[in-house]
Automatic annotation (TrEMBL):
Position of the signal peptide: none
Pfam families reported in the protein's UniProt record: ABC_tran
Species the sequence originates in: Conexibacter woesei (strain DSM 14684 / CCUG 47730 / CIP 108061 / JCM 11494 / NBRC 100937 / ID131577)
SMART domains: AAA (SM00382)
Taxon lineage: Bacteria, Bacillati, Actinomycetota, Thermoleophilia, Solirubrobacterales
Keyword list, A-Z: ATP-binding, Nucleotide-binding, Repeat, Transport
Source organism, top-level taxon: Bacteria
CDD domains to which the protein is assigned, alphabetical: ABC_Carb_Monos_I, ABC_Carb_Monos_II
GO function term, MF aspect, one: ATP hydrolysis activity
InterPro entries, per database record: AAA+_ATPase, ABC_carbohydrate_import_ATPase, ABC_transporter-like_ATP-bd, ABC_transporter-like_CS, P-loop_NTPase
Residues annotated as domain ABC transporter: 11-242, 263-507
Protein name: ABC transporter related protein
């Protein structure tokens, strides 16, 4: 499908083909970016969005096709070369050195001749122009995720980006940070520049983009004006067929107090390295066949709660029990042994070994149990067979279990982790932001899988910022604010406004 018509494009990609070995990830893609537009790129997991943008960002060389900038064909052989043509990419996983200051990070990759002070004052000035205030002396590690993203954006702007590519930028942001980002992007586009926004959030696309290009299996299947398109139509264009109708909640209603807790903590306190309390005297029980939603703005203790309930972070005080098994003071292996699964927030760093093949990652938590374990050894053919089955259940776009995880698309890697964890949870599952980064079809599958686990009696702690997701799935909702549970709602008495207020720290009835 060619991308023709309209004003002269600022950048044009024509007939782009990209192969990885035998696999064709892009099969002749055309994309034109016009000055002044926010252009959304939509598509199911593995459709080729990131690969296409890596071609534009100079990180992949295309096998066929050409790129035209301001009417001239160009070769973008490196990110530095792309930057010289005004193309800047903000990655899903930030490329910042956490121990360094904002200033030092801004200097990395700045034009070699420029002095540190020049590149920093330039970035600070740019930040002010676009409403992003930053302290150049602050260490990256001390910044919120939203602020870290602002540093990434400023780094690209500081290198003279005229085309800004953002890969799922709001996946890690609070709703307020997302709004600020979109205001900034609009101002950037209004100044005659262009933005490419890769996103799975349909509301974001219809609300903030001008045009949208929809990809499936390495090709463009549709182009639309974003404001004139209903979310449902976009979803159908993306996955090719109609999605099953929501709502999903199919199981029997949970009766509070009717079942043994699968996992419970009492008086749980967790401290940060500097002694500040991350969790303060927190008590929570997750019943059998119950989904407990933890609502809250990120950074209020969610990560610490998930890590304490999976043995990854020691508690300063309190107890944790799985059924009648005392896990207080236990490590990760104790929790795995007790049947507690974990979908962590930062999956790429903590849930997989990116350089290892799919099959090794699939059995990460099974290498001690049959049929994968044979005595002290792993039976690799049994492990590979198990991994193939997991790929099928997770509906991965590949069944080649020898592929390295780092070569899977972000969404496909995530499907694998989710299925692996659900599969090894015989008692409880701690799921942090489980649908983040998934396309609508995959998100639906994940929600269904969690409801099936609930039906099987597993207790689930669902940590999410997405109120729709929490309201859709939870039997009970607790709100976490500054390390404490500040309010609790049941499915029957939940009130969206009260919930939102409570997330912001306001006292509710
Ligand atoms: N370096 C690589 N080597 C081999 N295959 C790759 C590599 N990078 C991407 N792929 C494959 O190319 C396809 C497209 O991946 P890409 O990351 O572009 O998808 P995406 O549309 O961005 O998906 P998601 O929404 O899941 O992030 C996938 O099947 C992926 O496994």
């Amino acid at each position: 499908m060619t991308d023709s018509g309209g004003a002269t494009p600022r950048v044009e990609m024509r007939g782009i083909v990209k192969r990885f070995g035998q696999f064709e990830a892009l099969s002749g893609v055309d994309l034109a970016l016009r000055a002044g537009e926010v252009h959304a790129l939509l598509g199911e997991n593995g459709a080729g969005k990131t690969t296409l943008m890596k071609v534009l960002g100079g990180l992949h060389e295309p096998d066929e096709g050409e790129i035209v900038v301001a009417g001239e064909p160009v070769k973008l052989r490196s990110a530095r070369r792309a930057a010289q043509y005004g193309i800047g990419m903000v990655h899903q996983h930030f490329c910042l050195v956490k121990r360094f200051t904002v200033a030092a990070n801004l200097q990395i990759g700045a034009a070699r001749a420029s002095r540190v002070s020049d590149s920093v004052s330039n970035a600070v000035e740019l930040g002010e122009r676009y409403g992003m205030k930053l302290d150049p002396a602050a260490r990256i590690a001390d910044l919120s995720v939203g602020e870290q993203q602002a540093v990434e954006i400023l780094r690209a702007l500081g290198r003279g980006a005229e085309i800004l590519i953002l890969d799922e930028p709001t996946a890690v942001l609070t709703p307020q940070e997302s709004e600020r980002l979109f205001t900034m992007l609009r101002e950037f586009a209004d100044a005659g520049k262009a933005v490419v926004l890769i996103s799975h959030k349909l509301r974001e696309v219809t609300g903030h983009a001008d045009r949208v290009t929809i990809m499936r299996r390495g090709a463009v299947v549709a182009r639309r004006l974003a404001g004139e398109c209903a979310e449902r139509e976009l979803a159908q264009l993306m996955i090719g067929t109609g999605i099953e109708d929501l709502p999903l909640q199919t199981g029997s209603p949970f009766k509070a107090g009717s079942s043994e807790p699968q996992l419970a903590c009492a008086g749980l306190s967790v401290t940060h390295a500097d002694g500040r309390l991350a969790l303060d005297d927190l008590s929570l029980r997750i019943g059998s066949g119950e989904i407990v939603g933890v609502a809250g703005v990120a950074g209020n203790g969610q990560r610490e709660l998930a890590e304490a309930l999976t043995g990854l972070r020691p508690a300063a005080a309190g107890t944790i029990h799985a059924g009648d098994r005392d896990l207080s003071g236990g490590g990760p292996l104790d929790f795995i042994g007790a049947g507690v699964g974990h979908v962590p927030e930062d999956r790429n760093r903590t849930a997989v070994a990116p350089g290892a093949p799919i099959w090794r990652n699939a059995v990460l938590k099974r290498y001690r149990t049959r049929p994968v374990a044979r005595g002290w050894r792993v039976d690799s053919s049994a492990a590979q067979k198990f991994a193939e089955q997991l790929c099928d259940v997770a509906q991965l776009s590949t069944r080649d279990v020898h592929r390295r995880i780092r070569n899977l698309s972000g969404g496909n890697a995530q499907r694998l982790v989710l299925r692996r964890e659900i599969d090894c949870s015989s008692r409880a599952l701690i799921a942090a932001y489980p649908a983040r980064g998934l396309d609508v079809g995959a998100a639906h599958q994940v929600k269904k899988a969690m409801l099936e686990a609930r039906e099987a009696g597993i207790g689930i702690l669902l940590i999410s910022e997405d109120l729709d997701e929490i309201l859709e799935l939870s039997d009970r909702i607790v709100v976490l604010y500054e390390g404490r549970i500040v309010s609790e709602f049941t499915r029957e008495n939940v009130d969206r406004d009260q919930l939102g207020l409570s997330m912001g720290g306001a006292a509710v009835r």
